[in-house]
Design brief:
The chain is α/β, with parallel strands linked by helices and 368 residues long. Helices cover 48% and strands 18% of the residues. Strands 2-1-3-4-5 form a five-stranded parallel sheet, with helices on both faces. Strand 9 and strand 10 (292-298) form a beta hairpin. Helix 5 packs antiparallel against helix 6, helix 7 (222-236) crosses helix 8 (255-272) and helix 8 packs antiparallel against helix 9.
Length: 368
């Protein structure tokens, strides 16, 4: 069971402390006393308070000074402060209270119902905030455990795949001549399935690692990275006739993560344009008032516009495996990388009309 929220009541007059305790005794909370400003500041460091009821007129250190020190300390600056004062109820005194960091100023004699109602609001907020923090911590723990489990399972799955692929290849090499066409076809299917599983495991590991990756931004030449990737694709597939165009694009981003993102986007574009005799892939950008939008565009197979919102979810595939290979994880990896940078990504397409994947790598409010 969670402990009751605490309220710190600060006053140099014993009778006032007793009166406040009597007014608040019906509330579900723990009341903590402080007789001086210094004592109040020490108490604030000992526990988490839902609210502090602070007298203004105290010797040595008055309430305004206590509020000032509390606001300057990162450990205590979030504690709500309600000033209780016997000073003249005036606009000047009220504004000074708010200017000192108080959330409210109550003038004596204090209406008991008003005081209890205001304090109850902060008690409820404190309980809700504590509950939310516990839920967030629990979700983070669960997510961490799930990612660790996924990583472990994916890593362990590699072990049986290696001999599966290796022995099936050895069987084909050494005994393939003893098998008829059907037997050889079966072995080829086994090898193809092992290869697909290996790709899936690699992608799952990448997906898990990227969530934990720390973004270390610096100036990155997106154009140079893209041209390198396209060059590798041309080397591996020299028969393709693909025109590639890229604008000059330098952005503050993590070089390693951006390369992974561009590689997935450009490999996708290369893959989905392969049925065209001549195709075109483009890396472009649009400079908007608050952000720069980059995009990878192709003139390939495209997809139904209704699929755009699901495009970045893991394991989503919108073409048959017999048409285009893949695990359905690449775009999920891209989305995580973009989100890690504080950006966003979206897709536009029509069937057989190519596709455009647009993304940003910084929040719009952080434009230089």
């Amino acid at each position: 069971m969670s402990p009751k929220p605490s309220i710190l009541i600060v006053d140099d007059v014993e009778a006032n402390l007793v009166a406040l305790e009597a007014l608040l005794e019906s509330l579900s909370c723990e009341l903590v006393r402080a007789r001086t400003g210094n004592e109040a500041l020490r108490e604030l460091l000992k526990r988490d308070y839902a609210v502090m009821l602070l007298d203004v007129q105290m010797p040595e250190m008055d309430g305004y000074e206590v509020a000032k020190w509390a606001r300057e300390n990162p450990a205590t600056r979030e504690v709500p402060i309600i000033f209780l004062t016997a000073m003249l109820e005036s606009e000047e005194n009220m504004l000074r209270g708010y200017g000192s960091g108080a959330v409210d100023v109550l003038f004596k004699p204090i209406n008991p119902y008003v005081l209890r109602s205001k304090v109850q609001v902060f008690l409820d907020l404190h309980v809700s905030r504590r509950s939310l923090a516990s839920e967030v911590a629990a979700h983070r723990k669960t997510l961490h455990e799930l990612e660790a489990f996924n990583y472990s399972i994916s890593h362990d799955l590699r072990s049986p795949l290696r001999p599966l692929g290796g022995f099936s290849q050895a069987l084909l090499d050494d005994y393939g001549h003893l098998l008829d066409a059907t037997g050889q076809d079966y072995l080829l299917r086994i090898r193809a399935a092992a290869h697909r599983m290996s790709q899936l495991i690699d992608d799952l590991l990448s997906l898990s690692q990227i969530r934990r990756a720390e973004v270390r931004p610096r100036a990155v030449n997106l154009t140079a990275i893209a041209r390198t990737i396209i060059g590798e694709l041309r080397t591996n597939d020299p028969a393709r006739n693909v025109e590639f165009d890229a604008v000059e694009a330098i952005e503050q981003a993590d070089p390693g993560l951006v390369r992974v993102a561009l590689e997935n986007l450009l490999r996708n574009a290369w893959k989905f344009t392969r049925n065209r005799e001549k195709s075109r892939i483009e890396l472009g950008k649009r400079v908007e008032p608050r952000e720069t939008i980059y995009f990878v565009r192709d003139d390939g197979a495209g997809f139904e516009p209704a699929f755009a919102k699901r495009m970045f979810q893991p394991f989503q595939r919108f073409h048959k495996a017999t048409e285009f290979e893949g695990t359905g994880i690449g775009l999920a990896i891209v989305e995580r990388i973009v989100t890690h940078h504080g950006g966003r990504i979206w897709a536009e397409s029509t069937p057989d009309g190519g596709a455009t994947f647009s993304f940003t790598l910084r929040p719009p409010t952080e434009r230089d």
